[in-house]
Amino acid sequence: MPPNAAEIVAPGVHRIRVGRGDTENAFLVEGDDGFTLVDVGWASAPAVITDALAALGDRPTAVRRIMVTHAHPDHVRGLATMRELTGAEVLIHHADAAWLRAGRVPTGGRSGAVGSTLDRLPFMRWTPVTPDRTLDDGELVEGSGLRVVHTPGHTAGHVALHHEPTRTLLIGDAAFHLRGLGLGPATLAHDPDTRPDALAALPTDVAAVGFAHGAPLTGDAVGAFHDFVRATGRSSTS
């Protein structure tokens, strides 16, 4: 497979490796009116995504909307360029919209000193982007087949996206699949103690899981994700 080709996760759901190996992913989702792009990546990602679209026989303008799981630089540093190339509308949860417009994670946006120190570095800033509209928990985004699941913790406005036609869950950074399944470094999260509650809010009847960081889980391997959620997630009443 060419390095910039789109890899099928489920029918109509394509993974694009926008970083080295399995470290960083974006997703293209086929819909009623074209593609929905879920996340972008660093500044180099738009070139990788347009190559993947070309491999699918499409131009950048086939992307009708860009849905951002959260406003962290490794997901949005290439967003302004991608919006310019595609003309797509940008959607993000309302709790992260101010961060996206500011072009940076604000002071106090991370729980730990390491994360806060990183956010002061120039390469962690991005070109400010004003979203075309904001997302709400439970919303089914017209034309995309994606339902919004608000999963705060990594950021206040973090969302997972459930592709209902294929029962594919695109989880952003609500969980990582690097050297096993985990919640990721607490220092990089806004409110790490709420992340297990967010996992408990995820739909359980899923056939595939796509991660922003790590290889997707499909087929029988999805059972490992279900086990992880049961072991790690908790309801707000527990």
UniProtKB/TrEMBL annotation:
MF terms (GO), sorted A to Z: hydrolase activity
Q: Where is the Metallo-beta-lactamase domain?
A: 23-213
Q: Show the Pfam families listed in the entry.
A: Lactamase_B
Q: Which UniProt keywords apply?
A: Hydrolase
Q: Which residues cross the membrane?
A: none
Give the matching PANTHER family: METALLO-BETA-LACTAMASE DOMAIN-CONTAINING, METALLO-BETA-LACTAMASE DOMAIN-CONTAINING PROTEIN
- Provide the protein name: Glyoxylase-like metal-dependent hydrolase (Beta-lactamase superfamily II)
Species, as recorded: Actinomycetospora corticicola
